[in-house]
Amino acid sequence: xxxxxxxxxxxxxxxxxxxxxxxxxxxxxxxxxxxxxxxxxxxxxxxxxxxxxxxxxxxxxxxxxxxxxxxxxxxxxxxxxxxxxxxxxxxxxxxxxxxxxxxxxxxxxxxxxxxxxxxxxxxxxxxxxxxxxxxxxxxxxxxxxxxxxxxxxxxxxxxxxxxxxxxxxxxxxxx
Length: 175
Hints:
Elements: H1 2-22, H2 55-60, E1 65-66, E2 69-70, H3 73-86, H4 90-95, E3 103-110, E4 122-130, E5 135-146, E6 149-157, E7 163-172
Antiparallel strand pairs: 1-2, 3-4, 4-5, 5-6, 6-7
């Protein structure tokens, strides 16, 4: 499981580098609904278009929108590029490196600190497997950094099965 993680990490890192380089041109290939063609789906989220309907994203980009819709073609392009950077190579992490549900939890240690908004300090390790017995893990760590913010790290596989290696110093913290 940990060897597979290391190999997947290298693949994820490589595809993410490619994504960071090509994200500005990807919206050119999107259809009118905001979907990339199948040959570019590794760079799109599996559950949304490039127009990103996630409420926090919509709120953070409200200056480019009127009534939740992009103000014009330029704003739509900028929003799509921002969405791609926010979710870089998301489809690859989910469809190529991800696990297949349903999952069964084998063990859990700690309290899942970052499923709360705002987050609380702590660490969490979950080991789980799929129907074929392939094992996965998820490790999360939240550490107070002062000023109402915290460091948050998440590595392994999300409960959805998506492969994840993420670190952020910007999470709201409830210490």
